Amino acid sequence: MLVPLYSILILVILISAVSPGANDLHFYDGVSTADVIFGDVFFEILDPPELRYSYRIRPAKDFGTPFNESVKFLEAKLVPTVPLHSCSDIVNHDDIVGQIALSERGECSFVYKTAKAQQAGARAVIITESIDRWDDSLDHLIEMVDDKMELDVNIPAAFLLGRSGATILHTLRNLKKTYAVINLPINMTHVPFSKMNQPPWISWIL
Ligand SMILES: *[C@@H]1O[C@H](CO)[C@@H](O)[C@H](O)[C@H]1NC(C)=O
Ligand SMILES: *[C@@H]1O[C@H](CO)[C@@H](O)[C@H](O)[C@H]1NC(C)=O
């Protein structure tokens, strides 16, 4: 009798240990973990050291070009746009040309921001939650789709989930830095969770 009880106890412990992480994954209905990880892309910040972690981004669904094998940035600059919302002409285009633009959500559509970043010479754009507000609980609703503005966008675009974007923006601002140095993408396919070097403010990512 002792053995089955013991097994059940182990099972209960295992289930309770696994469930929180699983629930925190923000699944779409009917989408498997593999699909979620498969669709998302990771990049890492090399500098400043305060931000040296791996970050997860969600590629735009139906605009821009795909994050395929042609998209490879080594020690590229991730440059916050001026203005940050990227809804009008970007004034720091000299810093952005050939690099990756970082814009915040709001004021205009994702496609419009991407078009503006492209116009400024960016080779990719990452859009974050607004610097002044973020809400992890809304991440699962964020899917960047074309707003049918018929803009010709041909750089890759992605959304940086959760509070990472705001943290990156705040940290760069505090350090008076105009960019971070990043590698994009990084291959996480066979990297175990414990080795993923997630930012400490992310508690839910896998
Ligand atoms: C990646 O996508 C771009 C834009 O669609 C395309 O021009 C390029 O050929 C693709 N590269 C590979 C290796 O598939
Ligand atoms: C990622 O790394 C694994 C081996 O760890 C390799 O099989 C896979 O092809 C890599 N993927 C890319 C996109 O480089």
From TrEMBL:
Keywords: Glycoprotein, Signal. It comes from the Eukaryota. The keyword Ribonucleoprotein does not apply. The keyword Chloroplast does not apply. Residues 75-167 form the PA domain. Residues 1-17 form the signal peptide. InterPro entries: PA_dom_sf, PA_domain. PANTHER family: PROTEASE-ASSOCIATED DOMAIN-CONTAINING PROTEIN (PTHR22702), PROTEASE-ASSOCIATED DOMAIN-CONTAINING PROTEIN 1 (PTHR22702:SF1). This is PRADC1-like protein isoform X1. It comes from Trichoplusia ni (Cabbage looper).
